[in-house]
Amino acid sequence: MAKSTSSDAQMLIRSLRTAYAATPTNLKIIDLYVVYAIVTAVIQVVYMVIVGSFPFNSFLSGVLSCVGTAVLAVCLRIQVNKENKEFKDLPPERAYADFVFCNLVLHLVIMNFLG
Amino acid sequence: MGAKAENGVKPPPLAPSSFPFPFLRTLKLKTKQQELLIRVSALALIYVLAFAVRLFSVLRYESMIHEFDPYFNYRTTLFLTKNGFYEFWNWFDAESWYPLGRIIGGTLFPGLMVTAALIYRALRFLTFAIHIREVCVLTAPFFASNTTLVAYFFGKEIWDAGAGLAAAALIAICPGYISRSVAGSYDNEGVAIFALLLTFYFFVKAVNTGSLAWGLASAFGYFYMVSAWGGYVFIINLVPLYVLVLLITGRYSMRLYVAYNCMYILGMLLAMQIRFVGFQHVQSGEHMAAMGVFFLMQVFYFVDWVKYILHDPKLFHSFLRITLTCSISVGALALGIGMATGYISPWTGRFYSLLDPTYAKDHIPIIASVSEHQPTAWSSFMFDFHILLFLFPAGLYFCFKRLSDATIFIVMYGLTSMYFAGVMVRLILVATPAVCLISAVAVSATIKNLTRLIRTKSKASQTGSSKGTSSLKASAKASLDQALPFQRNAAIALLAGAFYLLSRYAIHCTWVTSEAYSSPSIVLAARGAHGGRVIFDDYREAYFWLRQNTSPDAKVMSWWDYGYQITAMGNRTVIVDNNTWNNTHIATVGRAMSSYEDEAYEIMQSLDVDYVLVVFGGVTGYSSDDINKFLWMVRIGGGVFPVIKEPDYLVNGEYRVDKGAAPKMLNCLMYKLCYYRFGELTTEYGKPTGYDRARGVEIGNKNVKLEYLEEAFTTSNWIVRIYKVKPPKNRW
């Protein structure tokens, strides 16, 4: 039983890896950015757990800037991905411009909230 | 009504001869341009109509601020324009809630004041020398006009341009909205409904297009709503509920992901910039639904993506099992720990009483005492909505026939807001845009179908006469021709009926606005014996007496209803006001009003009170006076100080002020202050002296003697009475 689940898990991981290798490079870059942002957020949360959450607005603004930019990057990936039929009319320049503008607003608000 | 006929029906070539606007023909406009001109002119007229219908009280009385809460908003706007935004944002007010003071900068919703100040600045920049009070009075009608524009675009998004026009026209005069947005009603809701509809419109547009730009716009709309009104909790709960419904029914798409995430993250961040809201988006139980749906969405779409790249369903099932168990356990654990440790605060009383309407009556008498918080009667629904009440289910039917992301949203908005409108009278306001939009769908679809019936009949009769080759076709067309005349007449009759209903709606709305919702409530009017109008301006008379005849640091004790007006117009320090943030302080005042004079004197000494203000309607028959509110003072006071017991003031459970009243009632401070010297006054011909016209009885204790207070001022119709607290007696 345990052997089948572990072999199942191995097969799962292997097939995930092969499927993921097929994605185009620009999407992989975006995914890397998302992973980087999430890792930064996790580091901040761990730091908060060790040191304490005062001042809370700074902690929130740090974590939310990471989560926010990760989410916006995922939205960009969705809009740029050629396999999404809903977005085939959207030029990738427009998607990128939206991404940059939203990030700008996000970071302006974060800078105000940082305290 | 050519405006309602849409691009689906091209007019036959004989159209120009039947077109009722000959001058348009001379302009040689194409059909599309004619339609655009009609649409734009209709919208412009609706815009002006929405503004004009709200001006009754300005024309009848004068341009002044109404009610109670708007006076606080006016005072803060005045402060903002005089002292600038930094002082406003960090304002600590020592003039209310003496001796505690109030951190105004951190406990108000600044949207309304900032909006009015910006409009004022803009007008001043264009060298219109206008007073800030005029701007404040007319802010609400201006934003009501803007709401009609947003309703047009929203209707266009949900259904088509005809529904948009109908929605704009319906919401321009709907009494449910007018009640809180007349000229002079300078309150948060006037701006908040505009912000609400704008946020919903931007969000629906974002879901329909999947564009990050519209999501950002909806986040800004949400920010404006959070800055304007506490009712933003409705948005932050409705949108996640909508997302959940779409996820469950399988109508989710990538556009939904983009729209919701952009709005949630940016909206939450922007909302936390308002000091009053603070960290509630991550700490309060009312906002947890949005966060839960956010995390659910991440998991859901991640699983969906994995399913897409993995082409093997068996592997995917095992993956699904692992992730589901992990995420559900983590989520439940986090929620459980959060609620158990109290980090995530439970729903506050104000919003909990919406889910459980009996909660406030048993536990929080202050919330229960406000008249706007009572459950709604059917007559209120009919009064505020008229024909929209039965057009609403009709519109729901049409929406269900053509389900899309946008119609699902408006249906959910309509149903949830109708539930809340049933729980609390005040929330009819929130339901009004949804009811207007859904009814507009019904109106537009019905009229479109009827006009199409009329038009295709004439078209088919023409084509039938020109074609008609085979006998089969001829007989079929013949039968069709025979059925046509009755259908056409029926369609015309139904159309006439529809227009009759709409015209009755317009008449009803205008009548309701004129009779019920245009009174400033600070100035009372009545009909004299010969039919002429009599104005009672006693409130302002008393407040200006206070302003001109008392020392600048005098403290005034009154019931919390009048606090804002006293600080705004009388410019004196008050003990409690309408903000009702400190229940014990209000209970202290309630206790003072319901005690005997000597006990009350001790309480008043401890609070440094110089003047006491009471409102008395016995001479004029004004029924919203302090004697009628007295039992609430007893209940609130008794809620904190058990020495005040409500049965002491009642006789056999009945509240009386005449000879048979309870002895504690006849000698408490409120009774003495209201009826001082009243026993000598004849109020009505043929009745004995001391006849109270509001209660309809002769009072019990006519010989009121005051030991620790003396009468300072009584207004000309005895509505407001002010007493001075005497300093303690010399010891020898």
List descriptors.
heterodimer; A: 115 residues; mainly alpha; 4 helices; 83% helix; flat; B: 732 residues; five-stranded mixed β-sheet; two-stranded antiparallel sheet; 9 strands; 62% helix; 5% strand; disordered N terminus; STT3-PglB_core (chain B)
Radius of gyration of chain A: 18 Å
Number of helices of chain B: 31
Secondary-structure content class of chain A: mainly alpha
**Global outline of chain A:** flat
Radius of gyration of chain B: 31 Å
Q: Greatest interface and its residue counts?
A: A-B, 40 and 30 residues
Give the quaternary arrangement of the chains. heterodimer
**Beta-strand content bin of chain A:** under 5%
- Per DSSP, what share of the residues of chain B sits in E-state strands of 2 or more residues? under 5%
The stretches of 5 or more residues of chain B where confidence is low (pLDDT under 50) are 1-18, 463-471
Pathway (chain A): Protein modification; protein glycosylation
Pfam family, one (chain A): DAD
Main location (chain A): endoplasmic reticulum
GO biological process, one term (chain A): protein N-linked glycosylation
3D structure, described in words:
The complex is a heterodimer of chains A (115) and B (732). Chain A is mostly helical. Helices cover 83% and strands 0% of the residues of chain A. Chain A contains four helices and no strands. Chain A is flat, with a radius of gyration of 18 Å. The termini of chain B are far apart. In chain B, 62% of the residues lie in helices and 5% in strands. Chain B is globular, with a radius of gyration of 31 Å. In chain B, the strands form three sheets. Chain B has a five-stranded mixed sheet with strand order 4-3-5-9-8, with helices on both faces. In chain B, helix 8 crosses helix 23 and helix 11 (212-228) runs parallel beside helix 13. The model of chain B is unreliable at 1-18 and 463-471 (pLDDT under 50). Chain B has 732 residues and is mostly helical. Chains A and B meet through helix 1, helix 3 and helix 4 of A and helix 11, helix 13 and helix 16 of B. Chain A: Component of the oligosaccharyltransferase (OST) complex.
